[in-house]
Amino acid sequence: MIIRPCEARDLLAVTAIYREAVLHGRASFELDPPDEAEMTRRRAALVETGHPYLVADVEGAVAGYAYAGPYRPRPAYRSSIENSVYVDVRFRARGAGRALLARLVSDAADRGFRQMIAVIGDSGNTASIRLHEVCGFSRVGTLRHVGWKHGTWLDTVLMQRALGPGADMPSDLAL
Q1: Domain boundaries defined on the chain
Q2: Interval 105-135: pLDDT, tens
């Protein structure tokens, strides 16, 4: 497995992975899966602003992807990012999620970000919660019944980890 930056040629697979997650999972609170053009636009917006966007490549197949984007749009949040990790159903429980998240944490710290926040859809998503714990995240809260999907109310679990010096030093990211 190779973890590498996502390229334009990967977006068909990325779109398919996310489509399955939107239609059948509870990790994303989107109800309608975006098409490849929209996924291309979303990736470009993150990459152009210096945010990491990665894929797990297994013998030329995209096994999963992960990215980090702004946590919130206001300038004071500029050092904090929110992560997302999605793994193709054919590659789950084979280490792709862990490899992606570990590299995402490293790349984000190298870019000067200080806090990474995971907003995990569905408090029953134990695989994602455990993945984040293994990668150094701490659970900081649960928002109860904030999303309605697949005929049920869903929670979001908030997890966080410091990057680099975390809050021990002032941010050096420019406004």
Answers
A1: 2-168
A2: 999 999 999 999 999 999 999 999 999 999 9
